[in-house]
């Protein structure tokens, strides 16, 4: 299944994407999606719904985050060796974990707001792993059984803020720095999360081309590792790192996003996003 939410911010309705890629309105049967819907029982109930019996949604409405109730966004740094190399940092021997503020969440095509004093705004296409069953100290062998599904995440980053200290969070958690979607693709439709191609363009120019095949630590390893240090709840997202091609690593000079730039990105089978960079205004 492909689950999504559409409509004005804060007033999104639940939807399903049918086999022809058409958006269907589920709001006649229920309210917005919550983490309870991502549990095995919740997904089983949703799978019993026949999208062909739901009304089609006219036009191209705004898409929001595919569900409500994300309690945390767990991010993994430098999880592709060639990305680590382009930043000049050593390849990690265990996952680098940081958190992204949930106030950064936004829809997949919402504007990216450049904060005041921002001079080094950057992009990162990433595979998002959505938790469906509470995970505490799970093994790698058990890990994928705790996944509800997968989504596209743009880990928008302000490098000047990020590099001001050893903690990356303030360069990662500004408003609009976590576009998620366009939908949540349930795990049964992604038989191998380590075989997904990914890409990102800026103003039509290809900047990132990669594959989850080249992760240093795969999805199962990351989920197991994170669950040893924090409880992962249904709806939590693990953003699993980015392949090479970020702005800070461009040669001969870094490339930074500016107002008016358009970023498009996608992952095989998970859909695509599009954001326009806009300046912050009170």
From TrEMBL:
Protein name (record): 2-keto-4-pentenoate hydratase/2-oxohepta-3-ene-1,7-dioic acid hydratase in catechol pathway
Lineage, top ranks: Bacteria, Pseudomonadati, Pseudomonadota, Alphaproteobacteria, Rhodospirillales
Family matches, as InterPro entries: FAH, Fumarylacetoacetase-like_C, Fumarylacetoacetase_C_sf
Keywords tagged on the record: Metal-binding
Family: Belongs to the FAH family.
PANTHER family: FUMARYLACETOACETATE HYDROLASE DOMAIN-CONTAINING PROTEIN 2A, FUMARYLACETOACETATE HYDROLASE DOMAIN-CONTAINING PROTEIN 2A-RELATED
Domain Fumarylacetoacetase-like C-terminal stretches: 72-278
Organism: Azospirillum picis
């Amino acid at each position: 299944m492909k689950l999504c939410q559409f409509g004005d911010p804060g007033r999104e309705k639940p939807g399903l994407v049918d086999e022809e890629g058409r958006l269907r309105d589920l709001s006649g049967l229920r309210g917005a999606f919550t983490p309870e819907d991502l549990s095995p029982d919740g997904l089983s109930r949703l799978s019993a719904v026949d999208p062909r019996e739901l009304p089609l949604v006219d036009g191209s409405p705004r898409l929001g985050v595919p569900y409500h109730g994300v309690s945390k966004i767990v991010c993994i740094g430098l999880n592709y060796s060639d990305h680590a190399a382009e930043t000049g940092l050593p390849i990690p021997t265990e996952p680098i974990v940081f958190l992204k503020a949930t106030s950064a969440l936004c829809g997949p095509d919402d504007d990216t707001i450049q904060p005041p004093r921002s001079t080094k705004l950057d992009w990162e296409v990433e595979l998002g792993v959505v938790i469906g069953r509470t995970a505490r100290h799970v093994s790698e062998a058990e890990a994928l059984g705790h996944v509800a599904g997968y989504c596209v995440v743009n880990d928008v980053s302000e490098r000047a803020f990020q590099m001001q200290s050893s903690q990356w969070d303030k360069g990662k958690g500004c408003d609009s720095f976590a576009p998620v979607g366009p939908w949540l693709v349930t795990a049964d439709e992604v038989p191998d999360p380590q075989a997904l191609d990914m890409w990102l363009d800026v103003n039509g120019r290809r900047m990132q081309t990669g594959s989850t095949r080249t992760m240093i630590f795969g999805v199962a390893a990351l989920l197991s590792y994170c669950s040893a240090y924090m409880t992962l709840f249904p709806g939590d997202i693990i953003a699993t790192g980015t392949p090479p091609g970020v702005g800070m690593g461009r040669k001969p000079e870094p490339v930074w996003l500016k107002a008016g730039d358009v970023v498009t990105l996608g992952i095989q089978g998970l859909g695509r996003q599009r954001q326009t960079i806009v300046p912050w205004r009170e």
